[in-house]
Amino acid sequence: MTDSLILALRCVVAVVFAASALGKARAPGEFRATVRDMRVVPRRLTGAVAVAVPVLEAVLAAAVWVPALTTWAFAVSFGLIAAFTAALVSVLRRKIDTSCSCFGASRTRVGPAHLVRNAVLLGATAAGFLAALAAGGPGSVPAAGSLDPTGVFVSLLGAVCVSALVLSTDLLADVFTGTGGTHGTGGTHGTHGTSRRTS
Q1: Which of 42, 74, 129, 181 could bond 107 through an S-S bridge, CB–CB 3.0 to 4.6 Å?
Q2: How does pLDDT run across 122-138, given as a tens digit for each residue?
Q3: Is residue 9 within 8 Å of residue 157, measured between CB atoms?
Q4: Angstrom distance (rounded) from CA 65 to CA 73
Q5: Exposed/middle/buried for 149, CB within 10 Å: 0-12, 13-18, 19+?
Q6: CB neighbours of 95 closer than 8 A, spacing ≥ 6?
Q7: SS3 state of residue 136
Q8: Distant-in-sequence, close-in-space partners of 9: CB < 8 Å, separation ≥ 6
Q9: C-alpha distances in angstroms, 83 versus 48, 88, 90, 135, 198?
Q10: Confidence (pTM)
């Protein structure tokens, strides 16, 4: 059971962080503008943060598969998502009209759906950390485990479903709010959302 859970959660972390890192790498200007607009780090650090975040995400996507690093990868992933969540809460409290740009260019404004998404990821990474500890802790997590084909199928199916929902957060938010990803005219992105959409 523990090996099945670790496999599923490894897949979730790897898929989500790899997609996030790739999206940011494909639209670096979009993410840099989002970091600037959120105003959660000093302006002079905007460029460094915009570069460091996707690099760290890519490292975690790979590290979670290394037995000696799996436990720590889950722990660092939890910390990174917690930091993202704190930034989103700050943005919502200050009523800043900006997109998340978590997976690349987006015009969907930050909203409750993003907090729900992050809560799911916090739960997944916390569960992964605890499961890795139960398997023996750092250095003791099996590389493949002793899963039968049914266990592998169920684990991968669960991981695919969770990952797909996480990656579709912006789309689902647009569908259920009926906004179509359009920002209000009074927000920080309202004056240049169209130009950034085409970048």
Answers
A1: 181
A2: 999 999 999 998 887 66
A3: no
A4: 9
A5: exposed
A6: none
A7: coil
A8: 74, 124, 125, 127, 128, 131, 159
A9: 16, 9, 11, 27, 29
A10: 0.81
